Amino acid sequence: MKTNIPERIAALREAMKQHKIDAYIIPTSDPHMSEYPADCWKYREWISGFTGSAGTVIITADKAGLWTDSRYFLQASTQLEGTGIELFKMMLPETPTIPEFLTHELKEGQTVGLNGEIYSLADARSLEKALAEKEIKLNTNASLIDPIWKERPAIPEAPMFEMPIELSGKSTEDKLLDINKMLHKAGADCTILSALDEVAWTFNIRGTDVAYNPVVISYAFVSEKESVLFVNPKKIPAEIAEHLKKEGVTLADYGMLATFLSRLPERTRVFIDSKRTNVAIYNALPKSSILIEGTSPANHLKSIKNETEIKGFRNAVLKDGIAMTKFYFWLEKMLKAGEKVTELSAAAKLTALRSEQPQYVMDSFASISSYGPHGAVVHYSPTPETDTELKTDSLYLLDSGAQYLDGTTDITRTIALTHDLRTSAGSHERILVLEVFGRYAGFTAMLPTLAGAANRCVIPEYEFDIERLTELLCEDRFTNPSKYSVVLVSEGATFSGGNMIFQSEETDMFGHKKLGGIGNMISQQLKELTPQFNHGQVINTITQRLG
Predict the structure, then answer these.
(1) Which CATH entry fits the domain spanning 308-414: 3.90.230.10, 3.40.50.10190, 3.40.50.410, 3.20.20.140?
(2) What is the DSSP string of 477-526?
(3) What is the pLDDT of residue 302?
(4) Cα separation of 244 and 115, whole Å?
(5) Using an 8 Å Cβ cutoff, are 399 and 368 in contact?
(6) Whole-prediction pTM value?
(7) Cystine design at 485: which of 97, 209, 275, 477 (Cβ 3.0–4.6 Å)?
(8) Running DSSP on this structure, what letter comes out for residue 337?
(9) Domain covering 161-302: architecture
């Protein structure tokens, strides 16, 4: 896809010229401010090739940039290579914010454009205010990518399914009554539900339109007089349509929201959550409308769980625990048999085991299945190019979850695949020193230690006293029936008054010298110091560098 990126940017710049737009903003979101947009709204991914879940692209006549956070610095730098798009690392002191960049690059009287359907009202207001200080205009009606994205996917048409009251604990009719009570209290006549999770909760519907979220692409309008669900009619099974009508819901086509809003009576008091409502919805309201802003009533109400929902969450966690236990058994069996297991195949197996559980819908996010050094990569997601085989000599980080009809899970586990090393240490009554990756990230050693992988942990954030460490490891060994102890050492750890240990003076692409060797140094000093705490006898060590 990279080879097409410059062509796409060139086509966009031509469209910008035609519409007299000097800078164009492409966010990650969809019309519903979703974290994971459906394929048809992956504008930012299409224009840049960057596939992370957060980021904003800006195109000017001669520059192109992607703003993303630290989770995706490594991924973005790789995926943007050869595209002509510069990576702007958010939250670093030297990185300009998007408004700062725009006000620096543009002149008075120039125009910034964006598609108001995929930009929140709150963000648009903030941007407009910043631009106005330099008399730069903001056009929120510029949908420039649709005409040039010739193979843009269609909006999903998969049928919705019902969330039964046995699992929701409350009918749609009762939820609408609760929303209207809150509207009345706020002095509002009506509200617009734009966020897909709010619509799904209110109308007890679910779907598969969006990755990792069991929601339905839809809008809703709620008032005492009428409640309207705007959704593609093809998505509504007859029995669900009939049930919704009995609950007092009117059905309308997804594309009719703007027309419906434009016909609201004058001076209608409309409650809007500006952070979860796009600019296009605001623009569709009659100019006489009176806005009342705050947190969406539906968002507030769904945060207070009833007894049925709480029971559902507990059931979901129980089911996920069963799947995880089966996975641990499978993984151990496969590795003992010498069968090949990779990051991708392990994640796929876990998904398959979860799918065996009742009411499984989908995974709740892409599994972070990371072995060895990949465990230190923030939000690492394996690809066919990076897929690594799991072996019994390092740590395996698995962050995963599932969407069940009755609840959502998110489980992170660090698994020490070091059985052979432990056996060797125990059989010879030695101290096991495991040096692990993590330059300035002590949590990569701390988490498995807390999970029981080691007795002690040495991290980069704090210098350590080798004599005190020796004393503690000797005590741990005495209390262990197998007469061994384990210490996990981050590669960036330092002795008291010492410095980090580097393998050489060579640097990587980020200017970092390669760390390594602290484990061997600790191991040697443990041998020398253990007689002080072991009745004059040396305790031998076994050393292993993981990753």
Answers:
(1) 3.90.230.10
(2) HHHSTT--EEEEEETT--BTT----EEEEEE-TTSPEEE--HHHHHHHHH
(3) 96
(4) 32
(5) yes
(6) 0.79
(7) 477
(8) T
(9) 3-Layer(aba) Sandwich (3.40)
